Amino acid sequence: MFSNDEQILMKAEIIAIGNEIISGLIQDTNGRYLSKQLHLLGIDVSQITAVG
Question: Any idea where the MoaB/Mog domain is (predicted)?
Answer without folding.
Answer: 13-52
